[in-house]
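User: Reviewer 2 asked us to show a designed sequence for the structure in our supplementary figure. I'm pasting the C-alpha cells here. Could you produce the per-position amino acids so we can include them in the response letter?
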C-alpha cells in the first residue's frame, strides 16, 4: 500500500467511526456559508450538481431544493449512509449517493453544471489531482465552489510559514486523517493550472468552542489533553493568530481561517479553436 492509499484508509477509518457526529455537528450543519453558496452559485432547476466529500450531507441538502439532481460522493460509505438517513428523515429524495475518491471521480467528463467541496479538501493527499478531476467533470462554463480551512499567505503574515506548519501539526494531532491545509495562493495556483478562473472569493475567521471541536475526532482523553497542551504551549504569535481564549488555564475557544471561492471552467465559445 502506498502513502496515498494509507492516508485514504485512515480517512475511511476515522470518519467511519464519527459519521453521525458530522451529520449532527452544529459547525457543519448551520454554517453561514451554506446559504451563501446558493447566493454565489445561483443554481438553476435543471442543474445536476456534484458534492464531493459530502460528509454529513449538508451541502447536498442545501442544494437539493434548487437543482434537478445532486450527486453526493464520499470516500467513506458509513458517512454516505448517515447522510442519506438524515436526508430521508427530512423527506429529501433528489440526492444520489456514490462512494468515490475525490482524486479519481467515477464520472464522464462534462457531467456536472457545478461542483462543490466544503471543509474536506485538507484530507486529500493530492489536491492537484482533485482540482484536475473537478475541471474534467465540469461542463464548459460550469462552476466550482470550494470551501476549506486554510493557512495564511506569506504576503498576509510575516510568520505565515511558522503558523502554517503549526496549524497542520495541530490539526493532525487531533485528527490523524488530516493531511494539509493549503494557503489561498496555493489553491489559486492549482485552479489556474486546471484552467479554472476565480470569480469570487472571501476569507473569514471561523471560531470554535474548543471542547466539542476536539472531542468530535479525538479517540481518548489523553489525545484531547495533548491537543490542548500543544495550543497552550504554542508561541505567542501563533496563539494571537488563532485568537486563543483561556479560562483557569484551559482552552475555551480558538479560531482558524476559512476560504470560500467560486471558479469557472472556460466556456466553449471562449475556447481557442485549434
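Assistant: Here is a per-position design you can include in the supplement:
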Amino acid at each position: 500500500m502506498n502513502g496515498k492509499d494509507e492516508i485514504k484508509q485512515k480517512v475511511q477509518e476515522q470518519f467511519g467511526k464519527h459519521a453521525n457526529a458530522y451529520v449532527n455537528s452544529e459547525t457543519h450543519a448551520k454554517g453561514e456559508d451554506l446559504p451563501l453558496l446558493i447566493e454565489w452559485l445561483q443554481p438553476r432547476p435543471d442543474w445536476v450538481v456534484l458534492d464531493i466529500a459530502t460528509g454529513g450531507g449538508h451541502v447536498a441538502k442545501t442544494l437539493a431544493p434548487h437543482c434537478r439532481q445532486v450527486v453526493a460522493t464520499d470516500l467513506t460509505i458509513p458517512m454516505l449512509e448517515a447522510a442519506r438517513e438524515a436526508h430521508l428523515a427530512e423527506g429529501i429524495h433528489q440526492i444520489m449517493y456514490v462512494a468515490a475518491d475525490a482524486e479519481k471521480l467515477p464520472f464522464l467528463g462534462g457531467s456536472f453544471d457545478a461542483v462543490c467541496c466544503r471543509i474536506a479538501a485538507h484530507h486529500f493527499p493530492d489536491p492537484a489531482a482533485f482540482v484536475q478531476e473537478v475541471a474534467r467533470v465540469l461542463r464548459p462554463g460550469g462552476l466550482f465552489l470550494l470551501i476549506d480551512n486554510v493557512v495564511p499567505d506569506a504576503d498576509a503574515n510575516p510568520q505565515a510559514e511558522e503558523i502554517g506548519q503549526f496549524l497542520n501539526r495541530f490539526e493532525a494531532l487531533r485528527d490523524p486523517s488530516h493531511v494539509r491545509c493549503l494557503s489561498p495562493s496555493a489553491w489559486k495556483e492549482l485552479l489556474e493550472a486546471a484552467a479554472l478562473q476565480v470569480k469570487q472569493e472571501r476569507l473569514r475567521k471561523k471560531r470554535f468552542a474548543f471542547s466539542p471541536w476536539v472531542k468530535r475526532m479525538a479517540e481518548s482523553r489523553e489525545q484531547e489533553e495533548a491537543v490542548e497542551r500543544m495550543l497552550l504551549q504554542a508561541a505567542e504569535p501563533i496563539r494571537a493568530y488563532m485568537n486563543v481564549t483561556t479560562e483557569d488555564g484551559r482552552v475555551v475557544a480558538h479560531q482558524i481561517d476559512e476560504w470560500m471561492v467560486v471558479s469557472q471552467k472556460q466556456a466553449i465559445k471562449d475556447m481557442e479553436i485549434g
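For the response letter, you might also mention the following. The chain is about 40% helix and 25% strand. The CA atoms of residues 104 and 133 lie 7 Å apart.
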